[in-house]
Design a protein that fits this description.
Rossmann fold; 13-stranded antiparallel β-sheet; 24 strands; alpha+beta; 1010 residues; 9-stranded mixed β-sheet
């Protein structure tokens, strides 16, 4: 052993005596599990030293980056086989690969991954309740499990030369020459540094090899690995936050008795004492008990005849909801490991016993494969299962696992164990050197097929949104994540597959982003009422005096919604460059010919000059718009309250707006909106001499002067679109979360309808994004000192940009296909996407039709969620549009399911700094959230009808209690059967009205406030 302290003869004698009795206790009396612990101390942040001087480290096998077809799986297996073969060539590197599944700490893990952070943020941003978060934790705990996938790497000294061993011995003797005796503590000195570089080189190369094979593995710290070891032994006595005391940690040392020559009190407690908090009780030869947990460990006797991927075993055992741990220990094959059995079998050949035939057959097969160039390892497999109910349950679970192993390629298990404690300890990866399972030769390629290499992996350890795999593995995700260079997401899904619900879930998770202390900006263009539920949910969580921060509006083409597209940001005389492009696009659209989607030649130039002149005139004191008392009462009253005294004889609206700004008046924008140009102002400006001279002779194809044509079209637009006919009357000032529903203003088909759709999509974009499409490159455009009050707009917006940088900002467009095929609309989408990328804004586009998303946006998208496959033609379009790999095409064709109470299935792609992640995942939410965001026609109708009578909160509470699946579909089906009706696809008013009335009766007779 190459770690020691200086000892006297009596020390050595006492130590030898103590060791002798420990051996008697451990191996004869079999009393303590601690004696099976081979770990001695930590060498560095990632490596433990064993009692035989070998080095041990553990990787957390996060899983695969993408879903795999059989061909891709075979390629991954081949790459791992090649890597492992190289590491085991010298015989000094061995591996243990362990997969553990349990539900004991699932809820605790969800709290660590999501719940605690989400509640903390909810409290910071002012939410009154965390009930939605609590519900999400509970519902995910019902569908998920905790799994631990560890690869343990052990480097032994077998490859050291005799000279190196002698040098190592001399080094350790020198290091330990003056070290005090510490028999009951971790060793302080050792010679591991002499050969540590070999171990670390293996770890570094192994990580690269796995990454090349498409599998993410992370090297665990010794503290993390020790937690897994202790949790595997005694989960009931191990909190998620538990960490061991290791060399280099802060630690409160124990008092030393006077005259004691043993200084163990000044050392770190032995690992065996920390990793084994309670003793185990042997119940029978096959079962044991630790605390209130009954354990049934066993090992594999015969390896599979036909190896199958680990995923097939997991699918079969997951249905049984059984906790288990499956551990593979393998190292370079030694021909001696089977030769003695072959010799014995030959001697006993006269006895007709199955084992003799199996051994001889195995040796013959081994020889044949080796002759063909195959590589072998010596493989041991240990299995454990446990129950917190009874010993009988543990035994039944063992029987089920044994049967599942038999069907998994024909694995046979040992029927009786000699010592269940030793077998159980053997199943804990890297804890003990000794193994109880039979050491069997197995082809390396087939060994890799048995390993849990295809588990889906998330790059996020925590996240404000948690998804899950079909089997129940937690899959944290983080919108607006630093793991991405920018944020552009596309959501695609046929009607009825949860597209709008996906958007609502993603938006809510953005509000809970762990880095933010105030409400995020979320602006959404919607077509229909699907976003209304999300807005109402947020409003219900905010204090009454902050409910204005979340607003839903169903836009109407009326003067009540009148909005001036030429409004500027507070204090700014001119629009920003981003705003200017939007204004120009809108005016060009208004000036389109009746029979074309393309403007006449010269239109862009005229519109640009018209805009420039308008802002020049309204910002110049010689031509600015004069303040008119009596026009806006709120402004007049505010000026009186603030004792406004004009600096000049002539007062302009800009003077009033600036005065109100420096006095922090909430009515500042009311004044500024009178100071800027509007469309009527532009119409009047078309006869300005500067413009008529500049564009003299420029006409339409019909011979009409272009300025007269534009004036006529803009005048006509004011009649056709009252919403654009003057100065802003409708203000959203102060709101952070806004959804504009365009359903009433984007209907119909044909050129006129397309033009109107473009106008309203562009208008909505302008309204929703003007206050956060800001970035540092725009600062030089802004004046440092202007107006009578010397306002420094550049300084104001420099601070605002820094504030916005600290916040999540999202712009969403739902039902993008409603504007699909309209050139101007698609151009606007592309511009918005590019501006968003430049300004650090999260863009989300959702549609039913894959063709509605421009190719340029698809190429940039670094997050994609596809819900439902639709028709074969739609699958083909998806594959071509997103250039999906064959494995993802297979998922789309065969594995997509309609949303149910267990969740909505989606195919997800995340392009991150660490690589691309592609997996099928399930979004599962609780009934409280689902009822708020549900956009199914019948569900929405019932919710809104009840809300009108009872109020939104009480209506939602009743629906959650009576229909926990989040929909009335089951109740509708029950009523249909009672009436002898068939589902016809139409809105069944009589049935839904009956459900409404039934719930109103329930409210009157049975409802009790929660």
């Amino acid at each position: 052993m190459y770690h020691q302290t200086k000892k006297t003869f009596s020390d050595r004698l006492l130590s030898s005596t103590e060791t002798f009795f420990q051996l008697i206790s451990s191996y004869v009396l079999s009393q303590s599990p601690k004696d099976f612990v081979s770990l001695d101390t930590n060498v560095n942040k990632h490596t433990f030293l064993m009692d035989d001087c070998s080095l041990v480290s553990a990787f957390n096998v996060r899983g695969t980056k993408k879903a795999m077809k059989s061909e891709e799986y075979a390629d991954t297996v081949f790459k791992l086989e090649s890597a492992m073969k190289g590491y085991m060539a010298n015989g000094d590197t061995s591996f243990e690969w362990s997969f553990e599944l349990d539900t004991d700490k699932t809820k605790e893990e969800i709290e660590e991954v999501y719940g605690k952070s989400a509640r903390r943020v909810a409290n910071k941003i002012g939410f009154l309740s965390t009930g939605i978060i609590d519900e999400q934790v509970d519902v995910m705990a019902r569908f998920c499990h905790t799994e631990t996938n560890l690869l343990v790497v052990r480097t032994q000294l077998t490859s050291l030369t005799r000279e190196e061993i002698q040098q190592l011995k001399e080094l350790t003797e020198k290091l330990g020459s003056n070290t005090p005796k510490m028999t009951d503590a971790q060793n302080l000195v050792h010679g591991a540094s002499y050969y540590l570089h070999r171990h670390e080189a293996t770890l570094s190369a192994l990580k690269d090899d796995f990454d090349n094979a498409g599998i993410w593995i992370d090297l665990e710290t010794t503290h993390e690995y020790a937690y897994h070891l202790r949790n595997s032994y005694d989960s009931g006595f191990t909190d998620l936050s538990w960490r061991p005391a290791l060399q280099g940690d802060k630690y409160t040392y124990r008092p030393v008795e006077s005259g004691d020559s043993d200084y163990s009190a000044f050392g770190m407690p032995k690992l065996q004492d920390q990793l084994i908090p309670r003793m185990a009780e042997r119940l029978t030869y096959t079962t044991m008990q630790i605390g209130d947990t009954y354990i049934a460990p066993f090992s594999v006797k015969y390896l599979p005849k036909k190896p199958l991927p680990f995923a097939s075993f997991l699918r079969s055992i997951k249905k049984e909801n059984i906790p288990f741990r499956l551990t593979y220990a393998f190292n370079k094959h030694s021909s001696n490991s089977l030769m003695w059995k072959v010799g014995l079998a030959s001697l006993l050949s006269l006895i007709k016993h199955r084992d003799n035939k199996e051994i001889s057959s195995a040796y013959d097969n081994l020889s044949a494969v080796q002759d063909a160039g195959g590589d072998f390892v010596d493989l041991r497999i240990h299995v454990s299962t446990w129950s917190r109910q009874s010993e009988q349950d543990a035994k039944k679970q063992r029987e089920i696992i044994v049967k599942r192993l038999q069907s998994w390629g024909g694995i046979e298990c040992e029927s009786v164990e000699g010592d269940p404690v030793e077998t159980f300890m053997s199943s804990i990866p890297g804890l003990t050197r000794g193994k109880t399972a039979s050491q069997l030769p197995f082809e390396l390629n087939e060994t890799m097929q048995l390993m849990p290499i295809s588990r889906p992996s998330s790059i996020w350890d925590t996240g404000s949104r948690i998804l899950r795999t079909a089997e129940g593995k937690l899959f944290p995700t983080q919108p607006f994540s630093k793991q991405m260079d920018y944020w552009l997401k596309v959501i695609l899904g046929p009607m009825g597959f949860g597209k709008s619900a996906e958007l609502a879930c993603d938006n809510f998770s953005l509000l809970l982003h762990p880095d933010f202390n105030e409400l995020a900006y979320i602006r959404q263009i919607d077509v229909g009422t699907t976003s209304r539920g999300f807005i109402m949910l947020v409003r219900s969580l905010l204090p009454e005096n902050q409910a204005y921060l979340a607003q839903y509006h169903r836009l109407q083409n009326t003067k009540e919604f009148q909005k001036n597209i030429l409004d500027t940001l507070p204090t700014l005389r001119l629009p920003t460059s981003a705003q200017l492009g939007s204004i120009r696009d809108m005016l060009v659209t208004l000036a389109l010919p009746d029979d074309s989607e393309h403007p006449y030649e010269g239109t862009y130039q005229v519109i640009s000059s018209l805009i420039k002149l308008a802002y020049t005139l309204t910002s110049d004191r010689a031509t600015a718009l004069v303040y008119r008392p009596g026009l806006i009462k709120d402004v007049d009253d505010e000026l009186a309250r603030l004792d406004f005294t004009p600096i000049r004889n002539k007062v302009f609206w800009w003077d009033v707006a600036d005065f109100l700004y420096i006095n922090n008046s909430p009515h500042q924008m009311l004044a500024q909106q009178q100071a800027v140009p509007d469309i009527p102002y532009l119409v009047g400006l078309t006869s300005n001499e500067r413009l008529t001279n500049e564009f003299e002779g420029l006409t339409t194809p019909m011979g009409e002067p272009i300025l007269i044509f534009i004036a006529r079209k803009l005048s006509g637009a004011m009649d056709d679109y009252p919403i654009l006919s003057g100065r802003t009357r409708w203000n959203l000032q102060g709101a952070k979360i806004i959804s504009l529903d365009l359903d009433d203003v984007t209907r119909g088909k044909g050129p006129a309808a397309n033009k109107q759709n473009t106008i309203f999509y562009t208008l909505a974009t302008n309204i929703l994004t003007s206050d956060f499409f800001l970035y540092e490159e725009q600062l030089p455009e802004l004046p440092e000192k202007h107006g009578l009050y010397d306002i420094n707009s550049r300084g104001i917006y420099s601070k605002e940009i820094q504030r916005l940088k600290r916040l999540a900002k999202r712009f969403c467009v739902d039902e993008v296909h409603r504007g699909g095929g309209i050139t101007t609309f698609e151009s606007m989408l592309e511009t918005t996407t590019l501006e968003g990328r430049k300004g650090g804004i999260d863009i989300v586009l959702a549609t039913q039709l894959v063709k509605a998303i421009p190719d340029s946006i698809v190429k940039l998208a670094n997050a994609v969620s596809i819900l439902g496959s639709g028709s074969p033609a739609n699958v083909k379009d998806c594959v071509e549009k997103f250039q999906l790999e064959p494995s993802l095409q297979t998922i789309l064709e065969n594995e997509m399911r309609s949303p149910s109470a267990s969740g909505a299935t989606s195919l997800n792609i995340f392009r991150t700094k660490r690589g691309t992640v592609q997996h099928k995942l399930i979004s599962t939410v609780g009934p409280g959230f689902l009822w708020r965001i549900n956009s199914i026609q019948e569900d929405d109708y019932v919710r809104r009808q009840l809300g009108k009578v009872l109020g939104e909160d009480i209506a939602n509470e009743i629906l959650v209690k009576r229909y926990p699946s989040g929909t009335i579909e089951a109740e509708m089906e029950r009523l249909r059967k009672n009436r002898g009706l068939e589902k016809n696809g139409d809105f069944e008013s009589s049935i839904v009205d009956e459900i409404v009335n039934d719930n109103l009766r329930y409210f009157k007779t049975q409802y009790t406030a929660a």
